């Protein structure tokens, strides 16, 4: 099979497919990588097309995958590139994929929230620990000053008591 270059010989064809078979046929043609699709309804708004909901779902799944990839890279986990493109999933498998992506995204968001809370708690507890150490130092110094200031009158009384008892 040839490449898709300008000088390559091409054929323009129009396909009429049943709605039920369109997904499988288009995905198989896409797997071949030798076709280019043209829009025969350029005047129709994107939001008025029949497949707009499927495109939105795919874009949402793509967003979730980008989020997961960002989190993986943030954690410095290497991502292996197999160099292969996975096959297009069947429509019934898309529902399972969508549910899995949703679950993974929610778990990652919860982990991030918990991690932030733990960091905040750690900083607060570290600050309290520092305050308690400084407070302990203060009370230790005050106690030493109190004891040294209290010992002098006791020693004077002790000398007087010795003097009186002799």
UniProtKB/TrEMBL annotation:
Membrane topology: Multi-pass membrane protein
Domain of life (superkingdom): Eukaryota
Keyword Chloroplast attributed: no
GO biological process: vacuolar acidification
Intracellular or extracellular location(s): Membrane
Keywords assigned: Coiled coil, Hydrogen ion transport, Ion transport, Membrane, Transmembrane, Transmembrane helix, Transport
Entry keyword annotation includes Transmembrane helix: yes
Cellular component terms per the entry's GO annotation: plasma membrane; proton-transporting V-type ATPase, V0 domain; vacuolar proton-transporting V-type ATPase complex
Record-linked Pfam families: V_ATPase_I (PF01496)
Coiled-coil residue windows: 94-128
GO MF, any single term: proton-transporting ATPase activity, rotational mechanism
Assembly: V-ATPase is a heteromultimeric enzyme made up of two complexes: the ATP-hydrolytic V1 complex and the proton translocation V0 complex. The V1 complex consists of three catalytic AB heterodimers that form a heterohexamer, three peripheral stalks each consisting of EG heterodimers, one central rotor including subunits D and F, and the regulatory subunits C and H. The proton translocation complex V0 consists of the proton transport subunit a, a ring of proteolipid subunits c9c'', rotary subunit d, subunits e and f, and the accessory subunits ATP6AP1/Ac45 and ATP6AP2/PRR. Interacts with SPAAR.
UniProt-listed PANTHER family: V-TYPE PROTON ATPASE 116 KDA SUBUNIT A 1, VACUOLAR PROTON ATPASES
Role of this protein: Essential component of the vacuolar proton pump (V-ATPase), a multimeric enzyme that catalyzes the translocation of protons across the membranes. Required for assembly and activity of the V-ATPase.
Family to which this protein belongs: Belongs to the V-ATPase 116 kDa subunit family.
UniProt name for this protein: V-type proton ATPase subunit a
